[in-house]
Write a structure and sequence with these properties.
Number of strands: 5
CATH superfamily: P-loop containing nucleotide triphosphate hydrolases
Order of helices and strands: HEHEHHEHEHHEH
Structural class: alpha/beta
Oligomer: single chain
Shape: globular
Helix content: 40-55%
CATH class: Alpha Beta
CATH topology: Rossmann fold
Number of helices: 8
Strand content: 5-15%
CATH architecture: 3-Layer(aba) Sandwich
C-alpha cells in the first residue's frame, strides 16, 4: 500500500502494545458498537452498561454521537460522505482506546451496512461487538425528547435517518436488544451475557 504521506513514519512497533495495557488493567479491550435509530435507547443503554462494567472493575469509555459531533467531528454534516467520514474517525479513535486496553462503548446510528462494515474492518472482526438496539419507528418517535422527529417531519431537518434517510437493518450482529419489550435492566443483562466472556482477563 502506498503511504498517504511519504514523510510519515509510524512508531507503533516501538511503544508499549495493547497486551501490556490489558495486563495492567486485567481486562480484554473490545469495542461495543450500539447501532439503531435515534430514540431507540443507545445512549441510555450505554450509560447503564458503563456503570455495570465499572462496578465489576472494568475501565470503559463511552463515545456518543452528539458528543463526537460537537467536538472532533464538528466540521461534518449528514451527507453520505460525511456520515462515512464520521464513522471512519470514530472507528479509528475507538481503535486507539482499544490499544490502550480500554473497553469502548459506542452509540452511533451508523445507518448502513457499508458504514458498519467500515467500522468493523478498522477495529477488527474479533474486537467488534455489534449490538442492534431496536425499537419500532413509532416508539422512537414517541420518545422524541429532543423533538428531532417532529422537526424532520416538518422538513426542518434534512437527511434524518428513519424519515428522509434510510436505516438498513443490521445483518451481522452479535445481539439484538428490543428496547420496546425489555426493561433497561433486562437489556443490560443480555448485553453483559454476551460481552463478559470476551472482556474477562484470563
Amino acid at each position: 500500500m502506498t503511504p498517504i504521506n511519504e514523510n510519515i513514519f509510524p512508531v507503533f512497533h516501538e511503544i508499549l502494545g495493547r497486551a501490556e495495557k490489558e495486563t495492567l488493567l486485567h481486562q480484554r479491550s473490545k469495542v461495543i458498537w450500539l447501532t439503531g435509530l435515534s430514540g431507540a435507547g443507545k445512549t441510555t443503554l450505554a450509560k447503564y452498561l458503563e456503570e455495570a462494567l465499572h462496578n465489576k472493575g472494568f475501565l470503559t469509555q463511552v463515545l456518543d454521537g452528539d458528543n463526537i459531533r460537537s467536538g472532533i467531528n464538528n466540521n461534518l454534516g449528514f451527507s453520505d460522505s460525511d456520515r462515512y467520514e464520521n464513522i471512519r474517525r470514530i472507528a479509528e479513535i475507538s481503535k486507539l482506546f482499544m490499544d490502550c486496553g480500554v473497553i469502548t462503548i459506542n452509540c452511533f446510528i451508523s445507518p448502513t451496512e457499508d458504514i458498519r462494515d467500515l467500522a468493523r474492518r478498522i477495529i477488527g472482526q474479533d474486537d467488534f461487538i455489534e449490538v442492534y438496539v431496536n425499537a419500532p419507528l413509532n416508539v422512537c418517535e414517541a420518545r422524541d425528547v429532543k423533538g428531532l422527529y417532529t422537526r424532520a417531519r416538518r422538513g426542518e431537518i434534512k437527511e434524518f435517518t428513519g424519515i428522509t434517510s434510510p436505516f438498513e437493518t443490521p445483518e451481522n450482529i452479535d445481539l439484538e436488544i428490543r428496547t420496546d419489550l425489555l426493561s433497561i435492566e433486562e437489556s443490560v443483562e443480555q448485553i453483559l451475557e454476551v460481552i463478559l466472556p470476551r472482556i474477562d482477563y484470563h
